[in-house]
Design goal:
By secondary structure, the protein is mainly α. Helices cover 74% and strands 0% of the residues. It has helices at 3-20, 26-43, 47-51, 53-68, 88-115, 126-144, 150-167, 172-196. The protein is globular.
């Protein structure tokens, strides 16, 4: 257990707590969280999770903009971005992209240590790491668009992360993921209700 893991845990819990309650301040916490996760995953040789942090940072910035600058037709009664939904066709498209990109990235994770052995260590779970990465990106993208289904995807991510972190020798992050799981269930119910009320 390291101080980076502890700070990451606190930042992550704060970020998802704020997001679940629809607070735009979750994005400010998210920026710092990305930096600490980059350092944490580098130390644990979880390169897929590490390399995604700049992309996650960009999605976070996109979500920050979307939540604070909604178009007129996307606003609720308070002028905020209202909770939305996605179509079945969009689910199929996203699932296809996740599978294809997950396979390609897993292959890349196996290739990186062979190409640059002095820089990249062997990823202990390249396929699990890769698919968690792709599903996490999907969850972040849906969160950035404030779609209530994002919480369904986050629940899948949290369950997979618990297994990944335990297998990688992390101690605090599995507990944090379990707390994310509880928050995700509450947030799913809350956002679904907001969607039904057109909020």
């Amino acid at each position: 257990m390291s101080w980076v893991e502890i700070i990451s845990a606190v930042l992550g819990l704060s970020c998802v707590f704020l997001a679940g309650r629809g607070s735009k301040y979750n994005f400010w916490v998210g920026y710092v969280y990305n930096v600490f996760l980059f350092i944490l995953f580098w130390n644990q040789h979880l390169y897929s999770a590490m390399l995604i942090q700049p992309v996650a940072f960009a999605i976070n910035a996109y979500g920050h903009w979307r939540w604070t600058h909604p178009r007129a037709e996307e606003q609720n009664a308070s002028g905020d971005l209202r909770v939305g939904s996605i179509s079945t066709a969009m689910w199929v498209n996203m699932f296809t992209v996740v599978v294809l990109c997950g396979i390609l990235w897993a292959k890349a994770l196996q290739w990186l240590p062979e190409r640059w052995p002095g820089v990249f260590g062997v990823d202990p779970s390249p396929y699990l790491d890769s698919f968690i990465l792709m599903v996490t990106l999907l969850a972040q993208f849906l969160s950035a668009r404030k779609c209530w289904e994002c919480w369904i995807v986050w629940l899948v991510v949290n369950c997979a992360n618990i297994a990944l972190y335990i297998s990688s020798g992390l101690y605090v992050m599995p507990v944090v993921s379990a707390l994310y799981l509880a928050n995700g269930i509450w947030s799913l119910i809350s956002w679904k209700r907001k969607f039904a009320r057109n909020e």
